[in-house]
Design goal:
246 residues, mainly alpha, Multidrug-efflux Transporter Regulator, Chain: A, Domain 2, Globin-like, 3 domains, two-stranded antiparallel sheet, 12 helices, 2% strand, transcription regulation, DNA-bd_dom_put_sf, transcription
């Protein structure tokens, strides 16, 4: 199948498939004489695997490390995906039930305790993290979890989220400027430091993350909610910041 056919069948953009090829994540088995990418059944099977990982929140860099590992077992991964999605469905069902009860409570149809209002919420654990660690590992998880836990223990999560949203708004205000401008670089520098308060980002990783803001439609949609074109502006500003601070 050609790239356009695959994109239409799967429901992703041609640009996304091109990006997967460029970073060595999904390289088509053939290229036609005219230069068209030709995807085999094996390529489609790998694409399905990649999209399962994406659905569960794995970053592209980690997906590539997983699927290119000589020890990678596709069947084992599919079974783990199944369990992860079943766990996710169970959590969503609990949240849906909480929503239904809250609606009834708001209508005066039933009483609801304070505890019942938060049934299904669980920000303190990742139900498939340990199993993923055992199979594929991820040192960044430890650093990120440690900092998240410190924020939670200190009651600082709400404040951190507001600070992050405020910085998004600040960046949105300058998105019409040159991303290399002093104002834009000052704001994106704040973004770099803020991210490193939650994880561990090298300048190269920071630049790659900016590219993901554009390549991954979910990132783009979330970021552009603060202002149309913000994701692309941040991508450009992050690349300039990373290159100029090496």
């Amino acid at each position: 199948m050609r790239v356009k056919e695959v994109a239409e069948m799967v429901g992703i953009s041609v640009r996304t498939l091109h990006h997967y090829d460029e970073i060595g994540l999904l390289i088509p088995d053939e290229t036609s004489e005219a230069g068209y990418r030709i995807y085999s059944q094996q390529n489609l099977a790998m694409l399905q695997q990649i999209l399962f990982f994406r659905e569960l929140g794995f970053p592209l860099k980690q997906i590539k490390e997983i699927v290119t590992d000589p020890a990678f077992d596709r069947l084992e991964a599919l079974r783990l995906h199944e369990q992860m999605l079943l766990d996710k469905r169970q959590r969503l069902e609990k949240l849906l039930e909480t929503i239904r009860k809250t609606i009834s409570h708001a209508k005066g149809e039933m009483a609801m305790s304070a505890k019942d209002q938060f049934a299904g919420f669980d920000f303190g654990r990742n139900p498939y993290e340990q199993e993923a660690r055992e199979r594929w590992g991820d040192e960044a998880i430890d650093a990120s979890d440690k900092k998240l836990n410190q924020l939670k223990q200190n009651g600082g999560m709400a404040q951190f989220q507001e600070e992050m949203n405020e910085l998004y708004r600040k960046l949105a205000e300058v998105r019409g400027e040159d991303p290399a401008s002093e104002e834009a670089q000052s704001a994106i520098g704040q973004w770099y430091r803020m991210l490193n308060n939650m994880g561990s980002y090298s300048l190269d990783a920071f630049k790659g993350l900016g590219q993901m803001y554009v390549d991954d439609e979910r990132f783009t949609k979330t970021i552009d909610a603060f202002g149309a074109g913000l994701a692309q502006f941040m991508r450009d500003a992050m690349a300039i910041y990373a290159d100029s601070n090496k």
